[in-house]
């Protein structure tokens, strides 16, 4: 079966290359655009280590040409294609491509998506007021492309920050300040996204998937994006941390980012006990969100990334000062979880193994391998292990969705 699948994949790639060679001017067909997306998105199905980098780079040119040929109103088929691309770009941003270029491309795409009028109904609704249009969910991005664009930007920023640490790249204070500003901007995007059920959200007509499940996965992605962002940029939490908040308010804005980047007590991989324990709570919050979704839900196939991000924080809490007020994030209030790290790990193991049997893809096995490696590092007392650094150093990258 596998050799046959690889032959079919090779034939598909050859057909795509042949059609690209015949492109005249700037006209890229919907069929070609969707084929390129599917080719890249499914690369890891055939080889778990294939990240589809060539497809990612080539598709950026094709997408620019494709969007340039469209009017400001996308038909349903074109909205579907754009949503598929946004999802693929988001999950690939965590593992492949130049992170700096990827971030800039996602920023440009975010601007384009925000300016486009899109149809989310297979019927032509261009003459219907926007507030009355039916909105059918996209099978990959649900009801919000913007959430996935922001999460993808998190992936690019985190890889950019980690690459500078891993390769000991010395950057100027101004460069670090710019990186911090971008991280803060993405944080504000994610904190500002509150998706509630609307009357015009339409049931996907899938007996295995409900509107509430789709919205729930979107919320899990939003929270996972914030968790990963705070993991890579702990300075973002300082304005909300007791003691540090007062310092934050006294520093002029133009000096703040430089100060945050040079403060010894909060280096790239260090957190205060209060911050560590709050991030752990956020991870369990993400787990509690996903726990509400039945194992039979169609959304299970896109839960890999938020599960991975949350699971890597199923570690022991750090002893903090009992006389100090607990850390509370004003933009993300959380309830305390009674679950231990063993409870969280057990739920993730069982869920992933069940999912592995359900879909039969090596990508799920890879996620299990990554979280077990992170947990092992923590249990051996090596400190909090960042999964993005781990997968890069051990060659465990794959597309986690």
Protein model, in words:
With 401 residues, the chain is mostly helical. It has one domain (28-394). Helices cover 59% and strands 1% of the residues. The protein has a two-stranded parallel ribbon with strand order 1-2. Helix 2 packs parallel to helix 5 (76-92), helix 9 (211-232) packs across helix 13 (304-311) and helix 14 runs antiparallel to helix 15 (362-379). The model is unreliable at 244-268 (pLDDT under 50).
Short structural description:
This protein is 59% helix and 1% strand.
Task: Set down the secondary structure blueprint.
Elements: H1 2-21, H2 30-41, H3 43-46, H4 53-68, E1 73-74, H5 76-92, H6 99-115, E2 117-118, H7 145-166, H8 173-191, H9 211-232, H10 244-250, H11 253-262, H12 273-291, H13 304-311, H14 341-359, H15 362-379, H16 387-394
Parallel strand pairs: 1-2
Helix pairs in contact: 1-2, 2-4, 2-5, 5-7, 6-7, 7-8, 7-9, 8-9, 9-12, 9-13, 12-13, 14-15
Mean pLDDT: 85
Choose one word for the global shape: globular
Radius of gyration: 22 Å
Instruction: Calculate the terminal CA-CA distance, rounded to whole Å.
Output: 22 Å
Total number of strands: 2
Strand content: under 5%
